[in-house]
Design goal:
The structure holds two protein chains of two kinds.
Chain A: H1 5-9, H2 13-45, H3 59-86, H4 89-121, H5 129-149, H6 154-179, H7 201-233, H8 238-246
Helix pairs in contact in A: 2-7, 3-4, 3-6, 3-7, 4-5, 4-6, 4-7, 5-6
Chain B: H1 2-17, H2 19-40, H3 44-67, H4 72-77, H5 79-85, H6 90-111, H7 113-119, H8 127-152, H9 160-185, H10 191-218
Helix pairs in contact in B: 1-6, 2-3, 2-6, 3-6, 3-8, 3-9, 6-8, 6-10, 8-9, 8-10, 9-10
Classes of the chains: A mainly alpha, B mainly alpha.
Chain lengths: ~250, ~220
């Protein structure tokens, strides 16, 4: 399989910087538009749930954040694999710039889940498999971030964090299946990729809109954070100087 | 193979010359048990209920404490670099080092399990199962810990960072090990969780040396 040339060029920091700068406003803009639709349709238009009443509406924040908390870690692991196998510097940077966003999504999932659990289950926290594995995932994110920051040599820190992300992604399903040993309060999945979802379309569409919005927001914030990180890492190189001169910062 | 035994013998000999260091994880684990017993009170039924969990957590924390010295002294005096440039493959040397670590840090804790059992009023019938889970699970923990220690060896700070990396990764092992004892108490079959622990052992012992070697090499400049 032959990849087009522009794809290979994306591995070089100045090309990626320009590419990210072009896509970033689109990601943010589309994410905002979808989030406005999703939140309005979800919080106002969708009918109340027959069992949970209006409190089910937190699903429009909780579920997309939960999906993203896992998707971001998988993204980090793929980038870490690329970074360690092909020694691509940009991939190392992507692992580290994705981590805080992923940790934030995980924290949002935990907090909204806790707020949802209070009226539904009558408790803020339960040692349920999903809650527990989400909490462990949160600590894995923190570990990746802390490990990268513990090194004086920034490059060595990023590479160590990459390896930890890979070890962590192997561990996440193991943690999940290990904690399934306990009984679960958490409801089963209601949205399925294939076949009939057990959720009404008027509730489903806003949820999907929010899911896509959270992905686009992640992409936008990833681009923004990576651009800053690239400027910092490549400080002193010719293209950074040109970029800063063009903006009148030098 | 010769390098493996040479390094293993060297590590064991070094450990045998520093006998007090050898006992430190044990004392630490005993102190954890003491603190828990003081904190929850001396009620035998409650202690017996908590005993496997307390013993396991004491063991995990003692291993964590011992892990900090797995690679750090060698990195400081330069012998870790020598090991990396040595003709023997690095994963083999990692096997030797982790085996020595397991024999000097984990094995005394497992052998001390009867002592913990008496202190914590663990029923004598549970003791063989507890020691079996420890025997099966500590090599897995040693490998996970070795990977984390290798990652943090060149980082400025050890200690808390190592705990932050290791403890989330140790969650499945802990759950399975304590779950085995719970299953045993409730009369459920204990073989499935033991087999899972064994599977973890096989996976850790086969993948661990290579991941650990890769983690050590990351620090080499």
């Amino acid at each position: 399989m032959k990849l087009p040339l522009w794809f290979h060029r994306l591995g070089s920091p100045p090309t990626f910087y320009a590419f990210a700068a072009r896509l970033q406003p689109w990601c943010y803009g589309l994410a905002a538009a979808l989030a406005v639709y999703g939140l309005y349709a979800g919080l106002v238009l969708a009918p109340p749930d027959y069992q949970q009443g209006d409190s089910f509406r937190i699903i429009y924040v909780h579920v997309p954040a939960a999906w993203m908390s896992m998707a971001v870690f998988v993204f980090m692991a793929v980038a870490a694999f690329v970074a360690l196998v092909w020694r691509m510097k940009l991939a190392e940077t992507l692992v580290l710039t994705a981590a805080p966003t992923g940790a934030a999504f995980t924290l949002i999932t935990l907090v909204t889940g806790s707020i949802w659990g209070r009226p539904m289950w009558g408790t803020w926290w339960d040692w349920d498999p999903r809650l527990t594995s989400e909490l462990v995932l949160f600590f894995l994110y923190l570990g990746v971030i802390a490990l990268a920051q513990a090194f004086e040599d920034r490059r060595a820190g990023r590479r160590a964090a990459c390896l930890l992300a890979l070890v962590g992604v192997v561990n996440v399903p193991v943690v999940h299946f290990a904690v399934t040993w306990w009984n679960s309060l958490h409801q089963g999945p209601t949205v399925r990729m294939f076949g009939e979802s057990s959720i009404h379309p008027s509730m489903l569409w806003p949820l999907l809109a929010m899911a896509v919005a959270s992905k686009l927001y992640f992409a936008g914030s990833l681009f923004a954070r990576t651009r800053v990180a690239l400027l910092e890492q490549e400080a002193g190189s010719a293209w950074v100087r040109r970029e800063l001169e063009a903006r009148g910062h030098v | 193979m010769r390098a493996l035994f040479a390094l293993l013998l060297r590590d064991l000999r070094l450990a045998s010359r520093r006998r007090f260091d050898l006992l430190q994880p044990l004392f630490f684990a005993l102190l954890v048990c003491l603190l828990v017993a003081l904190a929850v009170g001396p009620e035998p039924a409650l202690l017996a209920r908590l005993a496997p969990a307390v013993n396991w957590i004491a063991l995990l924390l003692a291993l964590l404490l011992a892990l900090d010295t797995l690679f750090r002294p060698d990195a400081e005096d330069g012998s870790l670099e020598q090991m990396m440039v040595a003709p023997a493959p690095l994963p083999v040397l990692a096997v030797a080092r982790v085996t020595a670590f397991w024999a000097t840090a984990a094995l005394p804790l497992i052998l001390a399990a009867p002592l913990f059992a008496v202190m914590l009023r663990l029923p004598a019938t549970d003791l063989p199962l507890l020691m079996l889970t420890q025997l099966l699970a500590t090599p897995t923990l040693a490998w996970i810990g070795a990977i984390c220690a290798a990652l943090t060896v060149h980082a400025g700070r050890g200690g808390a960072l190592l705990a932050l990396l290791l403890l989330p990764l140790a969650v499945p092992v802990l759950i399975l090990a304590v779950g085995t004892l719970d299953a045993g108490r409730q009369g459920l079959p204990v073989l499935p969780p033991l087999l899972l622990l064994g599977a973890g052992l096989v996976a850790a012992c086969s993948a661990g040396p290579f991941v650990c070697a890769a983690a050590l090499r990351l620090g080499l400049r």
